[in-house]
Each structure stands twice: as C-alpha cells, then as structure tokens.
C-alpha cells in the first residue's frame, strides 16, 4: 500500500466524516469515569490509610520464625511461627491472597514437625536449660 493510499484511507475527507470522528471522540471522553485515588492505591497493592496490616505483619513474622526454626533447629521459633500464622489466617479478609497465607501456614507446620523429628526431646525454653 502506498503512502498516498494510506493517507486517503485514514484521514476523513468529507465534512460528515470529520463531524462523525469528532462525535466519536466526544463520546469516548464522556465515557471516562473518575475514580477514587484510594481505590486505585488498593489495587496496586499499597495499603489504604485505615487498612489493618496485622495479617501481613504476622505472615512475614511467621515466615521469618519458620526459617529460623528450620535452619537453627529452634523449637520455640517453630511454635512462634505457628502462632503468627494462625493470627494471620484468622485476621485475613476475603479478598486477600490465600495462597501466600496457606504457604506460610504450611511452612510453620513443617517447621514444627521437622524440629521434633530431628530432636524428639521436649522443648526447653531459651535461657532455662
């Protein structure tokens, strides 16, 4: 296709075509709806001003304590990780991502199981024995 044929194809040539394209542009601009900036922020993953971040904090703490329990063989870290995961699971909203919460929960359960499989003796508190 030559350039002149392309230009003739894309540009409106008559007054009716020009007014039709202007009407279409005006319709598109009227269809635009303004959104609340807070709702746009929540879709991007950032927190809203009144949103409770306890489940997120507990999820991160549970993962940290689980990894410490698995790597350092500390039973009390595994139990704290399980406690944090239960708090995170209990405080989640319906719209939150369940995969991440369940993976944290399973990681903390595996930390408890693995710490007792490696050493089945009862847990001693840090500094007590």
From TrEMBL:
InterPro entries: ASTER
Gene Ontology process terms (BP): protein insertion into ER membrane
GO cellular component: endoplasmic reticulum membrane
Keyword terms, alphabetized: Membrane, Transmembrane, Transmembrane helix
A GO MF term: protein folding chaperone
Domain of life, source organism: Eukaryota
Subcellular location: Membrane
Pfam family, one: ASTER
Family statement: Belongs to the Asterix family.
Protein known as: Uncharacterized protein
Organism this protein belongs to: Tigriopus californicus (Marine copepod)
């Amino acid at each position: 296709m030559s350039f002149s044929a392309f230009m003739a194809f894309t540009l409106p040539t008559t007054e009716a075509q020009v007014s039709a394209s202007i009407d279409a542009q005006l319709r598109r601009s009227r269809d635009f709806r303004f959104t609340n900036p807070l709702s746009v922020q929540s879709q991007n993953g950032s927190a809203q001003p009144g949103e409770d971040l306890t489940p997120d904090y507990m999820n991160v703490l549970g993962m940290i304590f689980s990894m410490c329990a698995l790597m350092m063989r500390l039973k009390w870290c595994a139990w704290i990780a399980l406690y944090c995961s239960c708090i995170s699971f209990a405080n989640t909203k319906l719209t939150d991502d369940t995969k991440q919460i369940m993976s944290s929960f399973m990681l903390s359960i595996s930390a408890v199981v693995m710490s007792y499989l490696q050493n089945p003796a009862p847990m001693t508190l840090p500094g007590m024995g």
